[in-house]
Amino acid sequence: MRTLHLQRDVPLKTTGQAFLAASLRVSGWLLVNAMIALGVLALAVLAIGSFSIEGAMHHLANLASRYIVAGPDRQHQFDLILLWSAALVFVAAGIFRRHSLMRALFEETSHD
Predict the structure, then answer these.
(1) Which of 12, 33, 76, 105 is buried most, with the most CB atoms less than 10 Å from its CB?
(2) Residue 112's pLDDT is what?
(3) What is the pTM assigned to this prediction?
(4) d(CA 64, CA 22)
(5) Residue 30, class by beta-carbon neighbours within 10 Å (0-12 exposed, 13-18 middle, 19+ buried)?
(6) What is the per-residue pLDDT across 29-87, written as a single tens digit (0 to 9) for each?
(7) DSSP for residue 9
(8) Residue 7 or residue 29, greater confidence
(9) DSSP at 10
């Protein structure tokens, strides 16, 4: 694991700019992982609908009608399943993209 070495004579403004640049890169990394998770869930919906928009909409309408009439306990159970699935895909994407996270955290940019 690489460490970030800061020079003692570096002005605070440069250090602050480096922190802001790193935080922008990390927020971009998080957003890409969230988009991957949403894309995988959308692909799962399409797969349930036989990879057609019409089939996916039919199954979503069926799911929505059953969700509305279900009790609060069953709705909560479905919500947890959906959230855990999205979290699992997010974490899996993060594991596969961990090297780009390290590069985003410890990359030093040149200020010409």
Answers:
(1) 33
(2) 40
(3) 0.76
(4) 41
(5) middle
(6) 999 999 999 999 999 999 999 999 999 999 999 999 999 999 999 999 999 999 999 99
(7) T
(8) 29
(9) S
> Distance between CA 20 and CA 107 in Å, rounded?
12
**What is the spatial distance between Cα 47 and Cα 29, in angstroms, rounded to a whole number?**
27
User: What is the DSSP annotation of 37-98?
Assistant: HHHHHHHHHHHHTTT-HHHHHHHHHHHHHHHHHS-HHHHHHHHHHHHHHHHHHHHHHHHHTH
The residue length of the chain stands at: 112
Question: Is the distance from CB of 93 to CB of 37 less than 8 angstroms?
Answer: yes
C-alpha distances (whole Å) from 82 to each of 18, 38, 75 are 37, 11, 11
Contacts of 44 (CB under 8 A, 6+ apart): none
